[in-house]
Amino acid sequence: MTIAGIPRLGLAAILFGALAFAIVPLLVPSYQVSILTEVLIYAVLAMSVDILAGYAGRTPLCLGAIFGVSTYVTVYWTSTMAGSPYMGMVLGVGAATLVAMVFAVLAIRTTGVYFILLTLALGMIIWGICLRWTSVTGGENGLRGSVRPAELAAHLPFYYMVFAAVAVITFAMWRFVRSPFGLTLRGIRDSESRMRSLGYNVSLHMFIAFTVSGLFAGVAGALYAMFNDFVSPSTVALTQSVEGLLMAITGGAGTLFGAFIGAFAIIGLENAVSLYTERWQSVLGLTFILIMIFAPEGILGGIKTLLARKRG
Amino acid sequence: MSGLNTFQLLNGLTFAALLFIVASGFTLIFGLLRIVNLAHGALYLLGGYCAYALASTTGSFLVGILAAMAAVAVTGLILDQGLLRFVRGHELRQVLLTLGVGLVLNDMMLVLFGGDTYTVPAPEFLRGAVRFWGLFYPKYRLFVLALGIVIFILLWLLLNRTRLGALIRAGVDDPETIEAMGVNIRRIFLLTFMLGAALAGLGGAVGGAFLTLYPSADAEILVFSLAVVIIGGRGSLVGAAVGALMVGMLNTVGQVMFPEFAYFVIFGPMAAILAFRPLGLFGRTA
Question: Is A199 helix (H, G, I), strand (E, B) or coil?
Fold first, then answer.
């Protein structure tokens, strides 16, 4: 049974998840609300990773940096240029998209591990520039902005603004991956040579996929600028890309909505762990190792496989 | 190049020699085992810290270097046999697993050594400067340059003049056939992995004496090694040497002329090369 192409069980799960994200913030203290806000923002980053890693079959390690470009531009616009936050966010997303286009031109010809290596190196360029271009980026000290408008200063109104934005973005991304274009991407993932001989312009498809993915990462980065009001080189560091990828994989690559589960699991883990130890990076690395060995399909991917097996 | 004097040129060359030592280990593992070892930078740093700890307690630089190579080779053994064996044949899972290992190792070293900067103590006879062509140049850096050349020659001889080298090269080209011929390719894979790791350890020990050791040094050297291997091509020793020279010189040019965009000066040309030769200058299809 499917409705609009989604199995009934899946639809119920999505509605339940959305309802939970809508209601729970009313019941928990403000600290947890801000964690949930972070979960929603990072879910968008993880979904943008999933477009490339899950649907186009190329694992990117630069989207955290593109996310950070948007954060930097937004914060810079509101602090140094004293511009309006919304204009800053638009500029941030624009800058992220532009960077993604440049990266796409360079990276789309590579596949497999070469794609990982190249995107990793490209992301590091951004990190290097943010760290060294002290006159603009503030170097290691970072930039403090005034992005969040007064009417959204409280936790709850801000949460629901992010919730609404993320709902719209998620719908757009879902349409994107289910469109004929998204199906072509999956075709390229499964067999690039076959798609090429069928007459598809593989490079152009990869370019568009990369750009769209960068655009959404930029949206997440702009929201993060509003959430955090501060940016430093750690926002564009490799760990950011790694976390985004880990969330996408934990949720289940190629499932899109798994990103929410992944973001919730990883950020939840981060906050739980930080109560006991400062060694979050070790826990992150360990999680990566364990997932790669035992659960490469991720949570949602694993559930799907289980269900498929049960149905025989 | 009018903006560079001989001193800076030599700095670029010595940095290139260090990069070659580190990246040759990376490219060996990448070429033969198809494993992109993103923990390579952490292995470098581990080697550096080991060398620092031993060289400063025993007072012998040589002991420090040997201990670093041994310790990192054993870490490589554990990494390969303890973790990577579970994900054999899955390119992507291998890469991401080594990424996780790198994060853990880096964090553990932060616990052990803190955020301070350390310098591996160089032996007495390598301290100070020598004078030639009317300029003073640190002896130690010349030693690194010489070491890089020696390592290149040794690796070249190993790969091209020994039975083990022939097996490694055959393994790069066609692991199935060589296995069918009755060679235990797994053992050769393991040896190569340990050799590659030991080279990272050697790099850390040698580099730790002039680049200093600090918590994010692993990510920096990893990115430089990636650039070298991307430019040179997977598994190619000559490629690693050419790549190291390019990256070393570009880094110097970048730091002298455009300090704020030094990274861009390295990775711009790298990206351009990749756009025309996706497998690198000396890379071949698998």
Answer: coil
